[in-house]
Amino acid sequence: MAHTEYVYDLADGDGTMKTLLGGKGAGVAEMHRLGVPVPDAFTVTTHACVETMNRKGEWPETLWSEVEEALTRLEERTGLGLGDPEKPLLLSVRSGAVQSMPGMMDTILNLGVSDETVAGLAAGGDERFAWDSYRRFIQMYGEVVEGIEPHVYEDALTAIKNEKGVENDTDLTTEDLKELVARFKKLSNEALGGEWTSDPKEQLKRAINAVFQSWLNPRAEVYRRANNISAALGTAVNVMQMVFGNRGETSATGVLFTRNPSTGVDELYGEFLVNAQGEDVVAGIRTPRPLEEMEEVLPDAYRELLDNMKKMEQHYKDMQDMEFTIENGKLYLLQTRNGKRTAAAALKVANDLVDEGVITKEEALARIEPAQLDQLLHPGIDPNHGQQSIAKGLPASPGAALGKLCFSADDADVRGDNEPVILVRFETTPDDIHGVIKAQGVLTAHGGMTSHAAVVARGMGKPCVAGAHGIKINPEAKTVTIGDKEYGEDDTLTLDGSTGEVYAGELPLVPPQINDDFQHIVQWADEVRRLGVRANADNRTDAMKARELGAQGIGLCRTEHMFMAEDRLPAVREMILAENDQERAAALEKILPMQQQDFEGIFDAMSGLPVTVRLLDPPLHEFLPNLVEQSLKVQELELTGGAAEDIEREKHLLGQVKKLHEQNPMLGTRGCRLGMLYPEIPEMQTRAIIRAALAVRKAKGETVDVEIMIPLVAYAEELKRQRAVVVETADEEIANSGEEINYTVGTMIELPRAAVTADQIAEHADFFSFGTNDLTQTGIGISRDDAEQGFLGQYVIDEVMPRNPFESVDRDGVGELVRIGVDKGRSVKNGLKTGVCGEHGGDPESIDLFNEIGLDYVSCSPYRVPIARFAAAQAVL
Ligand code: ADP
Ligand code: MG
Ligand code: MG
């Protein structure tokens, strides 16, 4: 063991040390341990990066001397020396975060080549290769470490190719490359005002520092935010001996997945390039070749690669994404990681690995990323569309995407907020990440199946058609020419990422198809999980969808939407504006049959399962016109000499609007407070519910378990009185019907006072349902609508809060209120039924907490039901 505080030699690490060595560092250490050929290396830990960030960019005192010691050891092991003219050691300096962030940070290759060492590098016989490496180094180091504009080098490269009359970089001769190196050095020096350093040790120090800094670059930040990765983790830096895929025709470099990451099919999926280095394969400048073709070109290395590929897959028991380089016929693996894949592929791979006996069902379940399943629940292109495609590229990431065209990531970033857009690029680079996130899909003219764009798109479930060669993009004019037709920013295209076809206009879509792999695995999830999963649904269509997706009942049926419907509103207003009890009763009489009809639809769809109906919750003014608008209306009538009776009516309405106006309606007359003021409302609703349940049983022979829920209770006394209204009404209805039907009455716990007095409240409740949306608002003291527009986003970016508490429940605060509520409730009522019906019911992290707290079920929107089923299973694994 030779490691020091911040630096680990290759042999000091293993696959379990991701947090310290980063995914890449741990990955190469593990390969080395297992006898897979990897270049020798040492790793500067994530800890060193974090310390450096904490010290505002200054390295920990011992870091540089530790690096120097590790370098000396590496030199001894390889028999080479950094800067040694005879036997130069060349290094790659690679970024490596704990969670993989493909292409988001920087890597510097060929460090150690200089005027002094270039001859020594060529001593192996190949001068051209040495100078090619040299010009690559200056370009990469200049851009990444010294911050020189890429176009400085690109322009010089283009110029020399034009002068020599060649098209490809590979056509440049040794002499051309020498000339290019001279020009590159001069340009670099000019750009830096004479500060360019050629001391390799100094370069190494700066390169490591540049990798630290790249952790904070904008695209890495965007990626982290999109994937909920904490900025506090830092990146490791892998300093690795270079191996050269650009040493001629028996050298190559490439990328592969051990299975198809789009579909999950167990087949070879990779690309390579002969006589190439680094990003050549993924950058889209030269078109890479399918990996199968390597069998002919480099048969021995090919076989060895396939052996190692299967070995690593077996070892990690998961599909791998690997990078390799072949130098003079000798194979090296440079990286392995669990491959990013689509949801469909994730399910297929998991299913197959269980069939192959590689993993258990439980392990398979633990692998699935529940949030990713969302992808499977998006619509696809109607197979009967009958249209001709206008272009075809590689099916780089499956799914249907349609939208207006954007020709830069910045445009997509902005326009994507307002309308569906497709990002159209010659090729995409990691810098486009913010645009990819906002786009529905990505179309590129260049680049292969393993390009960064394709990898990132697959990971995010964005459809991507890559390398559609026939299309000509003009980013300045913001047009793309396909065939003989030009398409601009206002045109819509449809992409089929599963076939690579591109269509003009909007194609018809069909609802998502849930496949066999999904059905299979979700069954395992159901066998394992303890938490029930219900859906929030307030109409028949949603209820049916929820049931189809596996919901075991409805956890929240909101009744206000039934009040909002256009045909109901007049009667609802009549009720609100009623001058006395009789008038109010008359209006409610009109609403009752409509409510009953709604409930019948829902109960019919859910018969045999429990349905929790929440009595009216929102403040009454929501059913009335807005104060300002109504004032204006009255004013206008008066000014234009409207009929006296119209003025009178509108004025009356205005008076009511004023009367009901509240400064803070969220904390105003709503929830059970309404029912306390107007008991006729819960009475009417109870009648509608009980009548509907009876009617459905009459028609179907079975009905739902009726659960009537009183919202926004703060005091036990509120629940006691509201419960009495409900029970009296329900029992009367039941007695009148001459039938028997069971129902229960419970409450929402959505105020901190309710949570901490849950023992008192439980005396009157048959069940609790935690309304974590309101509980988050009232518990943290933030209004969702205002906060999400305002400070909340910044708080999340600055990591004041780990995540948006409306997306993922605030574990320590709101989560604790839920725990207190459950414990106190159950302290007086053993086994009191408890659930959650806020948005959090569909969030995997929150589900994990709810499982831990011991709730009986979560309830979420119908399309999140499958996600919740998986998350609930993972919570117990
Ligand atoms: P990323 O995280 O962006 O994939 P990497 O650190 O993997 O960055 O480096 C990018 C590419 O550089 C690799 O795919 C590989 O082709 C090349 N590379 C990195 N290290 C070496 C090395 N030691 N020898 C040869 N090529 C290397
Ligand atoms: Mg890599
Ligand atoms: Mg609420």
Automatic annotation (TrEMBL):
Pfam families: PEP-utilizers, PEP-utilizers_C, PPDK_N. Its cofactor is Mg(2+). GO terms for molecular function: pyruvate, phosphate dikinase activity. Residues 55-288, 300-351 form the Pyruvate phosphate dikinase AMP/ATP-binding domain. The keyword Transmembrane helix does not apply. Residues 419-500 form the PEP-utilising enzyme mobile domain. Residues 517-875 form the PEP-utilising enzyme C-terminal domain. Its EC number is 2.7.9.1. It catalyses: pyruvate + phosphate + ATP = phosphoenolpyruvate + AMP + diphosphate + H(+). Keywords: ATP-binding, Kinase, Magnesium, Metal-binding, Nucleotide-binding, Pyruvate, Transferase. The keyword RNA-binding does not apply. Belongs to the PEP-utilizing enzyme family. NCBIfam families: PRK05878.1, pyru_phos_dikin. PANTHER family: PHOSPHOENOLPYRUVATE DIKINASE-RELATED, PYRUVATE, PHOSPHATE DIKINASE 1, CHLOROPLASTIC. This is Pyruvate, phosphate dikinase.
